[in-house]
Give the backbone structure.
Amino acid sequence: MTTTSSSQSTSTRGRRPRNRRVLGALAAGVVALTGLTGCLPSSGMAVQVGDQRVSMDTFENDVEACSALANSQTMSPRQVIATTVTQAAVGEELLARSGRTLTTSQRDALMHSNNLTALNASPTCRQLGLRLTSLYAVVQGSDADTLRRQVHSLDVQVNPRLGGWYPDQLLVAGSSSLSSLWAGSRA
């Protein structure tokens, strides 16, 4: 009986560290998930960059109004617009951080000089184009290394349903939906 008791004791002691490891891993997973949920925008938020926020309603309106203008061989119109909305938010945040502002006439000139005038086709697309001009203004006022550092310094949050943010390419790509896989490359 002593041997059985000793064997059970050894067996129990052998399980405790394993159980502790499993519980430790589960606890770490819960902490990681809790941390992630604090970093993601709410389900009603499409994009958040600093103080710049774009709701899913605004994004869906942009998709509905501007999809016909979104041309890409590797991305769906929805992904093109997700990228454009995010680029606009990045540009607006960088412009705000620099203390600069743009008038409507300056934004109109940027739309014209960057061949964005097709976005004037509807009021919704025009507003998207006007927001996007902030990125063009920032790009024109910065060298490539400075711009890269500035973009990487931002906390860009994209709703996972729209894809992930790739700061080196200024691109939103991928999706958590298997029905709209991204066909581009990450490089």
Notes: Helices lie at 2-39, 56-66, 77-98, 104-113, 123-140, 144-153. The CA atoms of residues 174 and 181 lie 6 Å apart. Residues 1-12, 18-41, 178-187 have pLDDT under 50 and may be disordered. Residues 46-180 form one domain.
